[in-house]
Amino acid sequence: MADVGASPLKPFFPLKLDHFHAGATLGIGSFSRVRLVTHKIDESVWAMKVINKTDVYRLKQVEHVLNERAILDKIKCPFAVGLAGTFQDERCLYMVLNFVAGGEYYTHLRSAVRFENNVAKFYVAQCALFLEYMHKGDFVYRDLKPENVLLDSRGYVRVTDFGFAKKVAFKTYTLCGTPEYMAPEVILCSGHGAGVDWWALGVFAYESLVGQPPWVDDRGPMGIYQQILNGRLLFPRFVDASAKDLVKRLLVTDLTRRFGCLVSGAGDVKEHTWFSGLDWRALADKDLTAPLVPSVGGDLGDLADTSNFDAYPDPLSEPPLPSEVGLQPPKDPFPDF
């Protein structure tokens, strides 16, 4: 498997779809599908994100797709998926990414119902290191949630899906994200920056420890937004006191008091008592033994093992050309993809 940011596929550039054998679908988004693929020559295994151009134009997601590709091309973070290459044809855009065989954190969390304190701590800490890395480059991720966190074969985090990520020097005003994880400033459209990621880390920690986000509502997003703005935060009795304190300091509406947004930045999070005794250097170097190690490969060590992912049906037909549904972009928005 490729190192983060490295591309052993470079000798085969420019990449084409017929360079790969297509395998199982690993996930489906609103305008994309992620498939396991194997390179025909060197038999390396990858995850290929297939983005439907017609849906990108229809849903006005061109900017998000361009941001995703640009940011993945720049970051070299050990806690994020690596981009090996991109290409396109008339119908689709393609991103070739590291295949992370351990499956979604969300799946493992649902199987466990909730994680014991030290298990949650291990994974929240890695997400904090990921956010610290992103923010040093002025990148805001904007979609941290269990579904976007993958586990590798050793049980370490790889964050995926950078569709909402953006380089933000000061503030941006786009309404995006997952309702349960949205910070108040996003809901109020008052302008937001890196602080939204630290808010999301608080929700992520709470969900890891409790088994569900702090704010849920069967009536849909509007009810969730109202609860978030009301700010009432309740904890079950079993939540560790220091974990509870950190979550409270992350889920603060006032940005001048929210952990991660203060003078020390990520340092306030990393130095919190919940992480007492954690060797941050060893964690960053992946020298610690993960509390949750997914079963990958079986006895034969199958690098293309997809058993940790849910099964999805394969597409029945090719996506339509934009012109076939009356969409005509004024010019090619992806000339260098």
What report would you give on this structure?
A 5-stranded antiparallel β-sheet has the order 1-2-3-5-4. The protein is 29% helix and 14% strand. The protein is α+β, with helices and mostly antiparallel strands and 337 residues long. It has 2 domains: 10-101 and 301-325, 2-Layer Sandwich (Phosphorylase Kinase, domain 1); 105-284, Transferase(Phosphotransferase), domain 1 (Orthogonal Bundle). The protein is globular and about 55 Å long. It has 10 helices and 9 strands.
Q: Would you report the number of β strands?
A: 9
Order of helices and strands: EEEHHEEHHEEEEHHHHHH
The best one-word shape is: globular
Main pleated-sheet profile = 5 strands, antiparallel
- Please, how many helices? 10
Mean pLDDT: 92
Fraction of residues in helix? 25-40%
What is the C-level CATH assignment of the largest domain? Mainly Alpha
Query: Structural class per helix/strand content?
Result: alpha+beta
Give the domain tally. 2
Identify the CATH architecture of the largest domain.
Answer: Orthogonal Bundle
Under CATH, the topology of the largest domain can be stated as Transferase(Phosphotransferase), domain 1
Rg, please? 20 Å
* Terminal Cα span: 23 Å
